Amino acid sequence: MKEIKDPDLAALLAAAAAPEPDPDERGLEAVLVAYRAAAIEYRHAPSAERSPSRRPARGGLLLKFAAAIVLLVGGGVAAASAGALPDSIQRIAHDYLGGVGVPAPPGASVSPSAKASASPNRSRTASPSATLSAAPDTSSSSAASLAPSSSATASVAPSAATSTGSNDLVTLCRIVVQAGKSWHSKVDAAQHTTLVNAAGGDPQVLPYCTALINGGPSNSTNSTPPTPSAAPSPSPSKGHGGGDGDPSASLSNAQH
Amino acid sequence: MLDATDRTGSLDPALDAARAGHESGIAELWRALNPPILRYLRVVVGESAEDVASETWLHAAREIHQFRGDAAGFRVWLFRVARHRALDELRRVGRRREDPAGLDAADERVARDDPAAEALERFTTRRALGMIAGLPPDQAEAVMLRVVAGMDVAQTASVLGKRPGAVRIATMRGLRRLAANLEAGNAGAAGSASSSARNAKEVAE
Description:
The complex is a heterodimer.
Chain A: H1 7-16, H2 28-44, H3 58-81, H4 87-96, H5 112-115, H6 121-125, H7 128-133, H8 146-163, H9 169-179, H10 189-199, H11 205-214, H12 252-255
Helix pairs in contact in A: 3-8, 3-10, 4-8, 9-11, 10-11
Chain B: H1 4-9, H2 12-19, H3 23-45, H4 49-63, H5 71-93, H6 117-122, H7 125-133, H8 137-148, H9 153-160, H10 164-185, H11 193-204
């Protein structure tokens, strides 16, 4: 970002980003209480069920799972439609995705109308609940109608994904997130293409993967995130922090 | 201005500490990230910002043990949580985003002893946020995340669930409109409108 030369606009933005004059830490205590409670639960949870904090929010977890699958499939479709997948995977993708946006590898038969019938984004917009409740439909004839194919797509995706081994988006994303900014050195060219296609660009790969791995609210669906009611044994101390303009710390960490 | 990843890079040890169970870690994250979260929320939900920020952090406190990624990724994740809670809140109260409640009050304290003091003599933080909140919502959010929270285009796009190109455009339009509004406010103090528009474009790139 370049310097802003217009003095008025620069002054306005500087004021918007200026450090808080009177940091106060009243909100911090409630956060620490919640953190302590979660830490205790997390440590004592049996390893098989290491998500105690999510227990009150099963619906939320389910939603995240669904959102991850939708993302995964969206990415898979994007990768496949870009021709980025090896032949065998391309065929699997073609079979399971019912031909939606996925050109068949040479030798496979495909109805031409199915190929052009949907954009990759369509599967992303499938609502998670529809996604989970629909029965898998692996027959390629489902490609003709869009709605069924997008749900079939999502519910079958995990098997397609696991069979793709190291090209599985989630696995790839784990590698990326673990490597952080140096993720480029951890993936080969084909994997890089898969990631870039899924994320929508090279710079988006890291944030995309972080979002995919950590779940949370999904931007690509209109699903509502887990509600606050799933929350806190420690109450959020409403109205703490007083009026505007006096949260703690300065912005300087974020600004300079 | 430094690259956004440099700014959050210094929080990597704090994130590691928080994941390892050290309270000092999450306290440091809170001190560094709550102010920009609050400002962003103030523009999106106005006077509910404090409550939404609390909910956001309680969620983060419960989930941070399992968070995978670096501090820059954590910040993006945190803003995503904040944004979705904020949109829920707006739905709950049935209020539109372009109603920046609570941002017009005049009795704001002015920061002392900081480099931005000169700017603050002309704009209080609250007035500046009020002007940004007056933009169309997508532009206001893009300006807040890019300029105030200091995120790069990719991070902002991830928070907003948009394409990077859309983020660039929204930021540019937002800054242009701010510049135009400023000029309109400076009736008589002529001459800066065209340069403001040009500068807006530079910032958005």
